[in-house]
UDP-glucose glycoprotein glucosyltransferase 2 (Catharus ustulatus), 417 residues
Amino acid sequence: MAMWAGHTPGRGGRAGLGVPRAPLLLMAGWALLLPPALLLALLYARPCPCGTAPASSSQPVTARLAAKWPATPLLLEASEFIAEEGNEKFWQFLETVRELTVYKQGDSEYSYYNLILKKAGQFLSNLQINLLKFALSTRAYSPTVQMFQQIAADEPPPEGCSAFVVIHEKHTCKTNEIKKLLKKATKRPRPYLFKGDHKFPALKEEGPVVILYAEMGTKDFVKFHKILSEKAQKEEIVYVLRHYVQKPNSRKMYLSGYGVELAIKSTEYKAVDDMEVKGANETKEEEDEEEEEESDVQGFLFGKLKRMHPDLKNNLMEFKKHLIETTNNMEPLKVWEMQDLSFQAATRIMSAPVYDALKVMKDIAQNFPIRARSLTRVPVDKKMQNEIEENQKVCFYFLRWTFELLLFCCFWRLFLL
């Protein structure tokens, strides 16, 4: 959203000059096509000491978006990505990383990250590995890991335990007490299982439910997992795993946010001629009315209808008002109505006149909840949809290539220093 914030028609933006009918939604993707030489030049660029232009007095402002929860382990996020590929793959991946956190203590974070990718590569294709890298860089699965952390906090965890099990409302962090708690487990209430829970694959879905709260890859996790997996294979229990980190990271979870704006407003008093402001406002209102007349409301062009039927002007205005009020009702959409909503929005933007395309895009972006209902009735241009999907694939590969190149250059620069 934020990438279009500065393109206001008539203020340095290209809308006033007539933007070519190219896929406007992909304009930001051109930044990914910069050649390597230019990227290196930007990386090693130095400010010009010649002094031909005066330096700006404003200081740069850097804004970072931090979540309310601490940083989550990358290993747990990677496991959630693999879980979406299949439950069996999740448990196979779990077996390969049973004590992986041991390597984290001696290696750097980057080496540990590469080790996670290497382990995941046993169960994922090259394309899926690229998607995993992207998911880890955007921390897409951090909220899922934090969800399990909150569920564990509601139990609550026994004090001083890095891993514990819950067997029908009874808690323990000692493996030798599991057998004792299983004896009368069926007489206690059965726990509620969530859709995102990780169930150990077994033919039998009955029997006592044992929920393990632990951090995958730790020694305490391995002790519990060995016992519970054996019992689950014998169909004695239903084994469920939920992520739990006893000592959360002290660092904040920084997110790659979008649509974030830091607006600095001037509080200085400025004298303005009221007559000029009034005249400018009246002119603007007249222009807005003319633009509204040319825009359609649920398929009706009221500007043309008024010119064709001037005697029905009042009735047309009432009808237009009624359509606008019904359009602005934010009724919930069905799932099948939302599957092509992004393509329908793009079709609406591309079908608008050239000089109105940016304006339509801005309106949809800023008023999306009340525009969604009308967008569901827009037929999708299949040719445009195929082109967008193809461009998304190309942009993804260029994004990955650019990110790896910049990362390499940064490490090389640090090495030289």
Q: What stands out?
A: The chain is about 50% helix and 5% strand. The first strand starts at residue 65 and ends at 70.
